[in-house]
TrEMBL record:
Protein name (Swiss-Prot/TrEMBL): Importin-13
One example of a Gene Ontology biological process annotation: protein import into nucleus
A Pfam family the protein falls into: Importin_rep
Keywords associated with the record: Cytoplasm, Nucleus, Protein transport, Repeat, Transport
The keyword Cell inner membrane appears for this protein: no
A single MF term (Gene Ontology): small GTPase binding
Length: 904
């Protein structure tokens, strides 16, 4: 890499291209040449352009019969030279390329020269797409290339129409066309070539490149302007139906795939244009039906077919366009297309069906995963189609399912039942179906399904979960549904679906669940003890129980908590007394996780909110009983055990994190109800952090500060904790030990009785850390801190005394000490200083920028003064400050005006 960018590359690249070298060495020479031309164009004096061009032409002629990979690199190098010189220094570049290669000479046979020219013409637009040209040049060059199409098109046409053109030449012509249409060549100017491409689809050797060229041409955003050309292309595409059917019969999936891509490219990119051609509505409907054929192509995706998935986006697009018309127009289109969409639902549900059990068992895990994703795509499409078909779609699905389940003569396959239920679930999961009159009947049908397969059972569960909100409005149905869910809870194969469904029901229907609570808790305890589910499902199950218990009377909560938690507490005591080792560590983290997930959702304060409907007059509910919150009661009971556990595991960050998570989740959920624990938790946190500082303890401290620092009775322990954390953190910074990212407090409570100077200096040190997240959060910290200058006197004093140090640290980062990705954050600090400390900022900037070479040896005194004045002028427009900082950092890094900076 270093050799290729070095000044010597100009000399050695030609030597490496000499004929006696092996192709790998020649390739290196050609690549070095391209690197120099594309990235270091400014190094080449303009009087050498012509000789460089001549040398490249002669090398390409030499290699036209040589190594293909070297030839391509040389063509790319010449293409790069053309892009850098057109249109001023090399007008008519493409016409000259065509002329040079059509001239006889050099002892190179005509076919080799022709292929070399086509290679050059193919890579030219490709090189343009990836070139690093500045934005203004891109526009100029694109225009110049557009004018050059007049030299390319006749050549391509002549080569395609000649009967004696070899297959290799025709294939290269199609590749070349494919490359040029991506430059938005007007569709009407490539029309005759596209007709040749359709003819080429009959030739197996040319099929793939012809497909690519047609798809690229039809996908250009500009192509919809050429309505007449598009209308001529529709019959061409419809004419491929026989070839498509033949390919399906022969199991030729590659041909099916190619024809489907063409059909979808025309349908998807030109939907609006073709819909609006009312006189041609029948041919567009024929195209839509051809796409429907591709959607329903026989076979199971992705094993026997890979075509149907290509069509799904088309159905979104068509629906969007139809629904965007004015009402009168839309009504006419809906008459034509609603039946098409009902047919689509049948096709999609057929495609979503699982194969026979034996066949599915033979699929690889990758195929099964692709099929799962495909079904999710079908689900999304059905959800979308519902917006067009509405309630009638649900009735349609319900009737089909009812007929299927009540047909005694012909029992339904589980696959068929599952697919119909999957359709319901797809819609109910994301859309409000509460008003639908078929849901009660659907729930009746669900209880009649004989579940004899795990996939069907999963879908039954997910469908019930999707109807959880409906069940909350119709609690009378819970008695029929809950036994199914609780039964499934004991099956490890249904782990995810059964647990997530129970969690949804407990969250949505909790106020109607007290009669079932004992049963739900008992079944949940049993599956937890038997360890049927994996860790994450156990955590969800605990969250479900938290929701459930929240709706019970306090004495029932305590009774259930006691039976639920006691076995875990006993296990935790036993584990705490063992010598720490990896296996008991996992068990400890698991139990702590169960507790914190339970406390995440156990919130009795929500009982009042749930029972009062905002639209109805307020209902008088019984006030919550006095006394501590049940979660606090439990935490107080286990506090000594947790302290003991910490004393053994304090140097293990994962265990400490799991302990902190219990308290953090409880504080978040309970907020002020957590008050009885503030004092003892503050003391424990202080001890933990003083012994071994860890980020999880800081996060919990921050949570406590947010909620309790403004309450006078809790201020002393919170203040003591904050001062302790600050002094410990500062001492770590001064000693330069520990992981700074972990111990940088992202936001701290401000009060005139705290050591603000220590906090401020802690922040200054953090600004110079190498870790971007630390610097980012520290910039945010200073932005917030400066806003309090006027209302916290000690802070105002510190900023007056040490503001210059902050400016120096920020300038150091901008000058190159920090990654460029952080410039917006540094700009925020400068903006905040300008807003809150304007009088001092001018002085600090002047003093900080005075030393020569600071913040970078690359910026002049004039540039520094200019930067300073620009910043001081902007007190309102934050985005302008960000632009000024970005400009200045590029100057400091020597990147200003480079192509590299153009991408910034």
């Amino acid at each position: 890499m270093q050799a290729q960018v070095s000044p010597q590359a100009w000399q050695f690249c030609w030597a490496l291209l000499s004929p006696e070298k092996v192709p790998e060495i020649q390739y290196f020479g050609a690549n070095a040449l391209h690197t120099k031309i594309s990235r270091y164009w400014s190094d080449i004096p303009s009087d050498q352009y012509e000789s460089l061009k001549t040398q490249l032409f002669s090398q390409i002629a030499c290699f036209s019969s040589g190594s293909k990979m070297v030839l391509t690199r040389l063509c790319v190098a010449l293409a790069s030279l053309a892009l850098n010189t057109m249109p001023e220094a090399w007008p008519g570049a493409v016409a000259e390329m065509v002329r040079v290669f059509q001239e006889e000479g050099g002892g190179v046979d005509g076919r080799a020269r022709c292929l070399a020219l086509l290679e050059l013409l193919t890579v030219l637009p490709e090189e343009f797409q990836t070139s690093r040209l500045p934005q203004y040049r891109k526009g100029q060059v694109r225009g110049a290339l557009g004018c050059e199409w007049g030299s390319v098109c006749p050549l391509l046409q002549q080569l395609l129409q000649r009967t004696d053109s070899p297959g290799a030449v025709k294939a290269r012509v199609l590749r070349c066309l494919s490359s040029w249409v991506l430059l938005d060549v007007p569709l009407n100017e490539s029309e005759s070539l596209l007709h040749e491409c359709f003819s080429a689809l009959r030739d197996p050797e040319l099929f793939d490149t012809a497909v690519e060229a047609i798809v690229n041409a039809l996908s250009q955003p500009d192509s919809q302007r050429y309505v007449n050309t598009l209308l001529k292309l529709v019959p061409q595409v419809l004419g491929l139906q026989d070839q498509l059917r033949e390919a399906v019969q022969n199991g030729d999936m590659e041909t099916c795939h190619g024809i489907c891509r063409i059909t979808v490219a025309l349908g998807e990119n030109q939907t609006r244009t073709l819909l609006e051609q009312v006189d041609h509505w029948q041919s567009f409907l024929a195209l839509v039906n051809m796409i429907m054929f591709c959607t329903g192509i026989p076979g199971h995706y992705p094993v026997n077919e890979t075509v149907s998935s290509l069509t799904l986006t088309f159905w979104y697009t068509l629906q969007d366009e139809i629904m965007s018309f004015q009402v009168e127009k839309r009504t006419v289109y809906l008459q034509v297309y609603r039946p098409v969409y009902f047919q689509l639902v049948d096709v999609l549900l057929h495609k979503a069906q699982f194969p026979a059990d034996q066949e599915y068992a033979s699929w690889s895990s990758d195929e099964k995963e692709q099929f799962r994703i495909y079904r999710v795509d079908i689900s999304d499409t059905l959800m979308y189609v519902y917006e067009m078909l509405g309630a009638e779609l649900l009735s349609n699905l319900y009737d089909k399912l009812g007929r299927l389940l009540t047909n005694v003569e012909q029992p339904a396959s589980w696959q068929h039942t599952e697919a119909l239920l999957y359709g319901f679930q797809s819609i109910a999961e994301t859309l409000d179906v509460n008003y639908s009159d078929v849901i009660p009947g659907l729930i009746g049908l669900i209880t009649r399904i004989s579940v004899n397969n795990v996939h069907l059972a999963d879908t039954v569960m997910f469908t019930i979960g999707a109807l959880a909100e409906w069940l909350a409005d119709h609690p009378v149905m819970l008695g029929n549904i809950l036994p199914l869910v609780l039964h499934a809870l004991g099956n490890p194969d249904l782990s995810i679906s059964s647990v997530s469904t129970l969690k949804k029901i407990c969250r949505e229907c909790k106020s109607d669940l007290p009669p079932y609570a004992n049963n739900i808790v008992a079944v949940s305890q049993e599956v937890l003890i038997k360890q049927i589910h994996k860790t994450s499902q156990c955590m969800w199950l605990m969250q479900a129980l938290g929701f459930l218990l929240s709706a019970l009377p306090v004495e029932d909560i305590l009774r259930n908590l006691h039976s639920l938690i006691t076995p875990y507490i006993q296990q935790l005591e036993k584990l705490t007394n063992e010598t720490p080792n990896p296996s008991n560590k996992l068990a400890i983290i698991h139990i702590l996780g169960l507790l914190s997930n339970l406390f995440t959702t156990l919130d009795i304060s929500k009982q009042d909110d749930d029972s009062a409907d905002s639209s109805a007059p307020p209902v008088k509910t019984a006030p919550l009983p006095p006394g501590p919150n049940p979660v606090v009661v439990v935490l107080q009971q286990v506090f000594a055990l947790i302290q003991n556990l910490l004393s053994k595991w304090l140097n293990d960050s994962q265990v400490v994190e799991a302990v902190c998570a219990i308290f953090e989740k409880s504080v978040k959920t309970l907020t002020h109800d957590f008050a009885p624990m503030v004092s003892q938790l503050s003391e424990m946190l202080g001890q933990m952090y003083s012994t071994i500082p860890q980020v999880s303890a800081l996060d919990l401290t921050r949570q406590m500060l947010h909620i309790f620092s403004i309450e006078p009775e809790h201020f002393p322990p919170i203040k003591a904790l904050f001062e302790l954390v600050t002094s410990v953190t500062l001492s770590i910074f001064q000693q330069g030990r520990g992981s700074p990212t972990d111990t940088c407090p992202p936001d701290l409570f401000l009060s005139d009785s705290l050591d603000v100077k220590a906090v401020y200096h802690c922040g200054l040190l953090s600004l110079k850390f190498p870790e971007a997240p630390t610097v980012k959060s520290t910039c945010f910290f200073f932005t917030e801190l400066l806003a309090h200058c006027s209302d916290v006197p000690p802070l105002a004093r510190v900023v007056q005394e040490d503001g210059k140090l902050l400016i120096q640290a920020v300038l150091e980062g901008i000058g190159g000490g920090a990654p460029r990705s952080l410039m917006d954050q540094f700009a925020e600090v400068l903006f905040s200083l300008n807003k809150h400390c304007f009088a001092l900022l001018g002085v600090w900037l002047k003093e900080a920028l005075q030393p020569p070479g600071f913040p970078s040896a690359r910026v002049t005194t004039e540039q520094k003064n200019n930067f300073s004045q620009q910043i001081l002028r902007e007190r309102v427009n934050k985005s302008r400050v960000k632009e000024i900082v970005k400009e200045f950092t590029l100057l400091c890094r020597g990147l200003h005006g480079t192509e590299y900076a153009a991408e910034y």
